[in-house]
Amino acid sequence: MGRGELLSINEYYHVYNRGADKRNIFGDTRDFDRFIEGMKEFNTTRPLGSLRDNGPISSSRSTGNRSTGNKETRDPLVEIVCFCLNKNHYHLLLRQLVDEGISKFIQKIAGGYTRYYNEKNRRNGVLFQGKYKFVKIDSNEQLLRVSAYINFNNVVHGIHKSQLNLFRSSLDEYIGKNGDSVICRKSIILEQFKNSSEYEKFAKDALKHTLTLREKDDPEIYLLLE
């Protein structure tokens, strides 16, 4: 797990954090949607105000381009490969695109979401448990297995895929059930499979293996995930 380490451009990282004191950071579906909006809107090197100042986010926006009259390039900080948001923690698989891109991206989305959450719940103080944690992805095998762990993270926690009040993930983007609503750049993963069904089968099998390692407290699990 990386702490105080300088992250490299064009490298992939498993990034995660939880609520302070293991508290829930998402209370309802509106909270999940707000965090995802922040992931879309704040993934840019350009200065932005709050989501409230910028107005609602259209479904045509993605991590790569902002839907404006002149098709302005957003100069993203990171490439989002996949994500999962749980009630009290989140997982992201990111590729850093600029110096300190991941740090700036997390600072923006966590800061903006904390302000939103505190205002909504009439509270003050920190929401997340210190600085985010990360694991550097050192191989293609690790990249694929981490994507499976994140996309199917609801299974890890015993949450049914229909319980959208308890989690959000990028799985539907990967298995073709989310139409044109795109947050993730999936090509690094999906181009290694014939189709999304083949990836889904691989991911389920990989997840079983990962959970077996965790049950055995195999040291490999700490290198792979967290």
Number of helices: 9
Detail the poorly predicted runs: 54-72
Provide the CATH architecture: 2-Layer Sandwich
Q: Shape, please?
A: globular
CATH topology: Alpha-Beta Plaits
CATH class: Alpha Beta
Name the helicity range. Answer: 25-40%
Determine the strand fraction and express it as a percent band. 5-15%
Write the layout of secondary structure elements.
Blueprint lengths: L11 E7 L10 H13 L9 H4 L23 E9 L2 E8 L4 H21 L11 E4 L3 H12 L1 H4 L10 E3 L1 H4 L12 H4 L5 H20 L4 H5 L2
Characterization of the model:
With 226 residues, the chain is α+β, with helices and mostly antiparallel strands. It contains 9 helices and 5 strands, in the order βααββαβααβαααα. A 5-stranded antiparallel β-sheet has the order 4-1-3-2-5. A hairpin with a 2-residue loop joins strand 2 and strand 3. Helix 1 (29-41) packs antiparallel against helix 3 (101-121) and helix 4 (140-151) crosses helix 8. The longest helix has 21 residues, at 101-121.
Summarize the structure.
The chain has 9 helices and 5 strands, in the order βααββαβααβαααα. The chain is an alpha+beta fold and 226 residues long.
Offer a few descriptive terms.
226 residues; Alpha-Beta Plaits; 5 strands
